[in-house]
Specification:
Blueprint: H1 5-11, E1 14-15, H2 21-26, H3 38-41, H4 43-55, E2 60-62, H5 70-74, H6 82-96, E3 103-108, H7 123-139, E4 144-150, H8 153-165, E5 171-179, E6 186-187, H9 194-204, E7 208-215, H10 219-230, E8 237-240, E9 246-249, E10 252-255, H11 259-263, H12 266-272, E11 276-277, H13 285-302
Parallel strand pairs: 1-11, 2-3, 3-4, 4-5, 5-7, 7-8, 8-11
Antiparallel strand pairs: 5-6, 9-10
């Protein structure tokens, strides 16, 4: 893409894809398995998943690299394959667009450990892992880096720095929130509130700010947080909610929110100020298609530019 993601998001509404983990499990990934390794071992399965999202109308495909850092891959005995796994993911996502224009966003997820002094992960080790992954993704041709499901300012800041050091064309940072026990506000596991997160992400150098995942984070929750973001920043905003809250059915985690139910609140999210909308845990290409229709309908009714 010739126009950076953050510039495109100022001009029109964009749609991202949906859940990767849910699709991997449906395709046969065993519980606790290394889904990122499938970029190398089973690229055809990842391609099929992402092709379905592209065909559903996604403008942005997020690479299958959520756990693609050296720290996370080492837990599966694949810590020395960071470059191979991440670069394969970028190639697969690009192929999934089938030759049409689309944004490939290199996904960097949490490192899975707390930074010192709260935990035993040193800043030096964290920084090195994030820089290594970001460099691999950008070198492979990713159109941007998306830093997802973050809960602390410290790790998010290091990840933004790493994406900047790799010269990513666009840097997206996204926090995961939980609804407070009294149901009055949203906050991350590490105590970060949306207004503080928005200000921090902009000051640190993100081009797009957002939220994804979390407890009780559906499309209406996204709208509520987006309003708080918009009060603190003029940057483009991305929202990627779960397909409702998960429930256990016969020992399996199930997300029951239908595509139509999720898409019904998309206009509220756009009115709140988001210009990139997608979905997270439990969602499917059918959810993406419903979001695509809602975004396009909103654009027609309000005279906004579609994708």
């Amino acid at each position: 893409m010739t126009q950076p993601l953050h510039e495109a998001a100022r001009a029109r509404c964009l749609v991202t894809d949906g859940a990767m983990g849910t699709a991997l499990m449906a395709a046969g990934l065993e519980a606790g398995g290394c889904g990122e390794w499938w970029n190398v071992a089973h690229p055809e399965r990842i391609l099929e998943i992402q092709r379905r999202y592209a065909q559903a109308g996604a403008d942005c495909l997020i690479t299958n690299t959520f756990g693609g850092s050296r720290i996370m891959l080492a837990r599966h005995g694949r810590g020395d394959l960071v470059r191979e796994i991440n670069q394969a993911a970028v190639r697969i996502a690009r192929e999934a667009f089938g030759g049409r224009d689309g944004y490939v966003l290199g996904n960097i997820g949490p490192l899975g450990a707390l930074l010192e002094p709260y935990g035993d992960l040193s800043e030096e080790k964290a920084r090195a892992a994030l820089e290594e992954q970001a460099a691999a993704l950008v070198e492979a041709g990713a159109d941007g880096i998306i830093i997802e499901t973050e809960t602390s300012l410290e790790e998010t800041g290091l990840a933004i720095d790493a994406a900047r050091a790799a010269r990513a064309p666009s840097v997206v940072a996204s926090f995961a929130y939980d609804l407070s026990t009294d149901g009055c506000f949203y906050v991350t596991m590490m105590g970060v509130l949306p207004d503080g997160a928005a200000a921090f992400m902009e000051e640190r150098g993100a081009d797009v700010v957002g939220l994804n995942c979390g407890t009780s984070v559906d499309m209406k929750a996204v709208a509520a947080v987006v309003r708080q973001y918009r009060a603190r920043t003029a940057l483009p905003i991305i929202g990627q909610p779960n397909a409702g809250n998960p429930v256990l059915v016969n020992g399996k985690v199930v997300y029951r929110q239908t595509p139509q139910e999720m898409a019904a609140a998309v206009p509220e999210v756009l009115e709140a100020g988001a210009t990139i909308v997608g979905s997270c845990c439990g969602s499917t290409p059918e959810h993406t298609a419903a979001i695509r229709r809602a975004v396009d309908d909103y654009a027609r009714r309000h005279g906004a530019a579609g994708a």
